[in-house]
Amino acid sequence: MSAATHDPADDAAVAVPEEEFGGLKRALRPAEHWLFFTLAAGFTAYHLIVLNLYPQEALLFRATHVAWGAALGFALYRPFAAACTDRVPWYDWVLIAASVACAAYIYVELEGLLFRAGAIPDPLDVVAGLVGTLIVLEFARRTAGLALPIIAGVFILYVFIGPWMPGVLYHRGYDWQRFFAYIYSDLGIFGTTTEASSNFIVLFVAFGAFLQVSKVGDYFNDLSLSLFGWTRGGPAKATVASGVLFGAISGSSVANVVASGSITIPMMRRVGYDRATAAAVEATSSTGGQITPPVLGAGAFLMAEITGIPYGEIAFAAIIPCLLFYVACFMHVELHARLNGLEGLPRSELPPLPALLRKAFLFLPLVVMVWALMSGYSAFRAGTLGILSAVVVSWLDREAAIGPRRVLDGLAQAARDSLQLVAVCACAGIIVGVIALTGIGGRFAQLILALAGQSQLYAMIFAMLIALILGMGMPTTAAYAIAAAVVAPGLQRMGVPPLVAHMFIFYFAVISSITPPVALASFAAAAIAKADPWRTAFISVKMGLATFIVPFMFFYSPLLLGQGELVTILQALATAAIGVVLLACATEGWLGGVLSWPLRAVALAAALCLITPGTVTDLVGLALGLALWSYMRFVRKEGVQSA
User: Fold this and answer.
1) Dihedral sign from CA coordinates of 444, 446, 450, 456
2) Could you give the CA distance from residue 103 to residue 148 in angstroms, rounded to a whole number?
3) Among 107, 53, 39, CA closest to 380
């Protein structure tokens, strides 16, 4: 396909989900649209006010957070495909009223609920708990699919059948009144997971929404195209760079695909990329956005809550793995372009770089937020400062200026973008609460120890499989929350540091977005490109192979998480970067020429040695890599020339 070839099919609009496991959305008629637009803007404004100006009692704040989110969810998401698409039907108004009533009950009975926590519940506590739990399950089903509510339902069932379960699954059982009063409290639905969504996630989603309202996302795409679009395979390199920049304002791989894929995929097609490869480049680079500081995926906020590790420290630990991920993506794109003789776009068709550089001040909100995190400010205060700086900085650009209407748009968009995360965190709270109530977490940790036979490697492989399987059936945040509650305690008992254990699980939950058989980011990109979803997913895995290996490397040495002396960290970064380059050479089959399968094996061995931190492995890897490069540069090249 030449650079001048254009396929009209690339311009056709394709319906793809806007978030992981996106539900059936409604386009409401004007009166209801403005009502719920106002409620959505109020939802985000409420969080900003409570977190920064007028703190509320934690249980009341979290209950209001879930109930308000559920009310918006029942209005904006249909329960099934045949339901009303342009108005809120009577049964959803009933669910909205029930959501509000549950939060109102907590407001009225707050002192009593806090006083009798863990004691014999009042009958109305049980009713509110039962109704509230059903609301959360339906809220999660609509916004995030069936998998998470089904798993939560299995855990609820386990509470009642525990006395009849064998072995480690046995527990003494609980009556339904006590359970529903327990689960609809800060020990269950309103526990750690909802604390993270109410205190942090909404604010950081709002930060991303305000950057998008101010057209910073468009600016990042234009800047990436201007810097790389003219180079060999330029649009694909611009896609990778855009993934780094856009990932800083969005914590969802699918959202990144939807936001940029409709622009980048046709450009890649134009210079000669086949449909599946173009989609895979977009899916892989967008997935990396969830491991890109300063705004990681929502699961990172849960990690901060569960482990007690400051969010800034978690974001710092993600820097080196993120760099390695994108070095690998960039090299895959470069090598694919070399193999297939692909060129870039004419400079005349690219956004002018001088004009874009004059708008570099649009990076300031990111700089402000990173400074705030590194200076010891709380995560929600850093998010608030980022939002305020985004508004102020936008006034320096007439096109991007955020006025009162755009402020309301940003607040409402943040609420809509948060709904799935609110539902997922609340539903995950049911699972976490059951694990704590029944003690199954501790027994599962013992099971992991027994299965792994005290081998940390086997335990980590087991944890990887659980995170990948969970991530294939539900959003990343839910997959991480469940795996963190069930698997992480066992890993920590085996001596794995908390940061390493949780970051390991988080990374595999993230890359489940590109891992078959359910690779949602890959499938979304394939829909935009009209490519084969399976082929797209397998190419995505090939491009993201480094992300499957790096977590095992930082398990063996925390240097790749920035833990250690500066000199040794820099050595680990430099050699690991060379390692992922060789890994790309091994998988693409190119290093100054086409690599045969035996030479690919040499490149793979050198890559693994270099990615593994350690002086001996680094020297072995460098020796193998240098020998392979010398052979391809001098011996193989001379042989080809003589032939």
Assistant:
1) positive
2) 23
3) 53
Contact (CB, 8 A) for 270 and 5:
yes
Tokens found for residue 77: 């998401």
Q: What is the pLDDT of residue 643?
A: 38
Tell me the residue type at 286.
Answer: S
Residue 622: pLDDT band (50, 70, 90) is: very high
pLDDT-based confidence at residue 2 (cuts at 50, 70, 90): very low
Both tokens of 6, joined, read 């254009």
H or E element at residue 24: strand 24-25
Does the pLDDT value for residue 197 go beyond 80? yes
- Strand 24-25 with 77-78, pairing: antiparallel
Sign of torsion over alpha carbons 87, 90, 91, 95: positive
How many CB atoms lie under 10 A from the CB of residue 336? Answer: 23
pLDDT at 558 over 70: yes
Instruction: For 626, list phi and psi in degrees, rounded to 5.
Output: -65, -40
Partners of 25 in beta bridges: 77
DSSP E strand stretches across 121-196? none
CA dihedral 188, 191, 194, 199 (to 10 degrees): 170
Q: Please give the model's pTM, rounded to 2 decimal places.
A: 0.85
Mean pLDDT of 342-348: 87
Would you mind telling me the total number of residues written for the chain in this entry?
A: 643
Q: Distance (Å, rounded) from C-alpha 608 to C-alpha 612? A: 6
Q: What percent of the chain has pLDDT over 70?
A: 93
Residues 6+ apart with CB under 8 A from 95: 70, 74, 135, 138
From CA 321, how far away is CA 324, in angstroms rounded?
5
- Contact between 242 and 351 under an 8 Å Cβ cutoff? The reply is no
Alpha helices in 184-252 (DSSP H): 192-196, 202-213, 216-228, 234-247
Residue 85, helix vs strand vs coil: coil
Q: Which of 403, 445, 429 is nearest to 148 (CA)?
A: 429
What is the rounded average pLDDT of the residues 242-255?
71
CA-CA distance, 2 to 352, in Å (whole number)? 24
* Distance (Å) of CA 464 to CA 132, 276, 325, 501: 33, 26, 18, 10
Where are the chain's structural domains?
A: 574-643
